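task queued by scheduler; priority normal; single chain, no ligands, no partner chains; default sampling; output format set to structure tokens
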Amino acid sequence: MENKEIKGIIHSIESFGSVDGPGVRYIVFLQGCRMRCRYCHNPDTWALNDKNSYEETPAETLKKAMRFKAYWKETGGITVSGGEALLQIDYVTELFRLAKEQGVHTTLDTSGNPFTREEPFFSKFNELLKYTDLFLLDIKHIDPVKHKDLTQWDNSNILDMAKYLSDNGKKMWIRNVLVPGYTDGEEDLQKLSDFISSLKTIDRVEVLPYHTLGVFKWKELGIDYTLEGVSPPDGELIKKANDILKTSEYKGYLNRQ
């Protein structure tokens, strides 16, 4: 039965997403994020409320999404991203609960920043686990000091979330943005690789090359962009990161059906 009191604050949707989870996805981007990643390409999602955002219930979202179900076939489904989707955990949980009733595959794209084992969040998170098939977890940096320099936040709870998901048998894709001069250090990449290897439920590891496509948004919002002059990584640097993180050893969701 639908809980009509729950509403999500939506930034935008993508009807035919192909990179945020397996298959063709209906992607819901939510407003709100506490992290301030220096390379963020969507700073317009930081504020929980934005003049261009809108509210809708989980049932309304699902109704819109189901119009595209024919395109999902066996592997597609719904992905909720952000912003940071866990800031609207009640909405995500209800949306995924309704989606699972319809047999829809559910994926959550998150940086893990809101995760805590304290209440009331922890109980809500455990409820969310019941209805989430796959987690896309962005690990910004394995080093806590460098992570804070990049995002203004510590990463200890994020790494704890990864361990908790692993211990509870939840499939994960680990993602890492490769920023020359910031996240490309061999020692740091090796530490990240070792951490990933300690997890039991990793389905895929992705190196996401840094890009500057969202810089114009920073300028429009009047925010100083502190990575001015940093260029996207070249092919050699991307290959090195993929080799250290052993991305080819993780066969991925589509190959395990």
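post-processing summary
- The radius of gyration is 18 Å.
- The longest helix spans residues 89-101.
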